[in-house]
Amino acid sequence: MAAVTAQVSDLLLHNATVHTVDPKDTVAEAIAIAGGRILAVGRLADVEQRCGPSTRRVDLGGRTVVPGFVDAHPHMDSVGLRLTKPAFNNPKSIADIQEVIRKEVARRKPGEWIICNPVASEPEVFGYPAALAEGRWPNRHDLDKVSPDNPVYIEPPSLVAPGHAFANSAAIRLCGIRKDSPVKEGVEIEVDASGEPTGVFRDINFPKWLPVRDGAFRAQGSLFPAMPELTDAETLAAVAAGAKAFNEAGITTIYEGHGIPVGPQRAYMDLWNRKQLTVRTYFVVSYPIPYYRDREKGNELIEQTARYAGGNGFGDDLLKFGGLGFSFDSAAAMGACLMREPYTGAAGKPWLGVQLADDEAFRDIVRRCAAAGLRVQVQCSGGGAIDKVLRTYEEVDREIPIQGKRWTIQHCQFPSAHNMADCLRLGVLPTTTTNFLWMYGSVYRKAFGEELAQQAIPFRSWLDSGVPIAQSTDGNPFQPMFAFWQLIARKDAVSGQALGDPAQRISRQEALRTYTLNGARTAFWDEVTGSIEPGKYADLAVLSQDILAVDEDRIPQTRVLATLLGGRPVHDTGLFSR
User: Fold this and answer.
1) Share of the chain above pLDDT 70, in %
2) How far apart are CA 232 and CA 264, in angstroms?
């Protein structure tokens, strides 16, 4: 048993299988907690020595306790927005879609916009429109039948190419959309035999030019300029909804290195001020892509951010923000990431992929961040992007050392052994997600070829290289029980087969560490959370079964019975309310 101080616990959890994720991966049976922190963990007979007459004892009935999960790239605000928008949940017919819209019209004011989630999510969306009984997408006439006056817009999936969006006649009319409306390259307005828009739109870009209502949403400059912007109240409600969903899923900490735009930043701070933030949140300030071409605005953002978010970040153990987050290439999920060799992209033509900033401009931006004392986090999916980003890090490091500053790279689906050695030498922390294999494995095969697709997201190689890679979800699916299973199974949903070299499989203990302690390290919180050890916060998830022991296929059926943040239940199915 490990213990600290002579303090008496106010809460004892016992009769449990406790996976501590300590340096020895100790399995314990009891935890003593005082003031929100862990006093002792180990055998019940030993831990009970830290209890007194006032200690509350909770018998967990043999259930499993793990550290609260740490999602190292969650988009919690975007998850919350999805939860607050009308959803179709993979409909079986256009009539199903109409029924959702009909219900929305009934509860909305006349003329109020109805903005919906995509018709279907990945990977199911790849089976549409064939999955609809009608065998086709809904058009404006279908939507007009249930919403003649309220403008309706159904978003495209942001990481699908082409992503299909749909609008009714009221929305088309308000936005002045015609067959000859100017559109960005890669966007198509479908028209009928008379040349009128059908209400079906396609977009192969990422980020989408057709609106996707998230934290970076802007209607102006798109094909739908009349669509209302997100209000502060809507954004706050979305972040709160995301936090609640994460609590219910067993997530206690997030690291959002992709960057959070201004609107959601304010919402996180408002919840923190109201003492309603129930997920430890470390977020990075988003560096807008247009600033790559606007040096003056970029310099201003770097200078402003350095005043309050330099070094390890500013804040406390509940909300912290630090550094700048960049995107260097586009999405592998759409065949748009920057690769080392040509491949077939979403437009059906050979290319290397998208590079959002030229080498010289990016190097200058990163150097200025380092000189200002700002931590740098970069999304780089393809192998070519990873090479260039790490080369930039190395060049900057020769002038301004970055070792120990925990710069990160994110997504990084196609790393090389050389990339891994660079990360180890520079102290760079990578985060990625095996969820991409589940949702986009079929895209990888089609775009990059079978051999390269099998090399994607090599967790085993990262760990064997000595780099503490962290698991994340990119917010879809965000539930840890699925993402933990996918770390082990590594399956492609379309084929149902495992994707990747079997040698890349990792153990369940290793998987748990990548999804807890390694994630906490990206937020500089590995000394206060991420494992169940004395002195750390009692951030815990109580599970219905032991995910380190049950049959692999049963892992996704595991229920989160309670989630504790600093020893306080933020989700409870009854264990702590008895």
Assistant:
1) 98
2) 8
Contact 437, 504 (CB under 8 A): no
Cα angle at 454 between 448 and 456, to 5 degrees? 80
Q: Which two tokens stand for residue 471?
A: 């698991």
Contact 120, 160 (CB under 8 A): no
Question: Which tens digits make up the pLDDT trace of 481-514?
Answer: 999 999 999 999 999 999 888 888 899 999 999 9
Residue 520: φ, ψ to 5°: -60, -30
- Are the beta carbons of 381 and 330 closer than 8 angstroms? yes
Q: Two tokens at 98?
A: 């109409």
- What SS3 class is residue 360? helix
Alpha-carbon distance of 530 to 537, in angstroms, equals 9
- Work out the average pLDDT over 130-151: 98
CA distance linking residue 543 with residue 549, whole number of Å: 12
Dihedral (CA of 257, 263, 269, 270) sign: negative
Whole-angstrom distance, CA of residue 93 vs CA of residue 100? 12
Look up residue 192 and give its amino acid: D
Provide CB contacts within 8 A for 205, sequence distance 6+: 161, 184, 185, 186, 187
SS3 at position 159: coil
Residues 307-339: tens digit of each pLDDT:
999 999 999 999 999 999 999 999 999 999 999
Could you tell me if residue 434 is left (phi over 0), alpha (psi between -120 and 50 degrees) or otherwise beta?
Answer: alpha
Residue 247, token pair as written in the block: 């609590």
3-state DSSP percent of the chain in helix, strand and coil, to 5: 35, 20, 45
CA angle 417, 423, 424 (to 5 degrees): 90
Classify 147 as helix, strand or coil: coil
**Tokens for 460?**
């085993």
- Please list the residue range(s) of the chain that carry CATH number 2.30.40.10: 1-68+532-578
- Exposure pattern of 119-130 as b/e (b: 16+ CB <10 Å)? bbbbbebbebbe
Place of tokens 């890669």: 186
Residue 196's identity, in one-letter code, is: E
Q: Please report how the helices 262-273 and 232-249 are oriented relative to each other, as an axis angle in degrees rounded to 10.
A: 70
Distance CA 242, CA 227 (A): 23
* From-to residues of CATH 3.20.20.140 in the chain: 233-529
Q: Helix H segments across 108-218?
A: 140-146, 169-174
Q: Token digits for 410?
A: 């994110």
Using CA atoms, how far apart are residues 427 and 48, in angstroms rounded to an integer? 40
- Decide: 512 and 548 in contact? Cβ < 8 Å: yes
The second-level CATH assignment, the architecture, of 233-529 is Alpha-Beta Barrel (3.20)
Query: Is the distance from CB of 241 to CB of 83 less than 8 angstroms?
Result: yes
Q: Strand 568-572 vs strand 560-565: parallel, antiparallel, or unpaired?
A: antiparallel
Rounded to 10 degrees, the C-alpha dihedral 93/99/105/111 comes to 20
DSSP one-letter code for 189:
E
Q: Where are the extended beta strands (E) located within 220-334?
A: 251-260, 280-286, 314-315, 319-327
What does the block give as tokens for 223? 């094909």
Give bridge partners of residue 539 from the DSSP assignment.
Answer: none
Task: Give the CATH fold of the 1-68+532-578 domain.
Answer: Urease, subunit C; domain 1 (2.30.40)
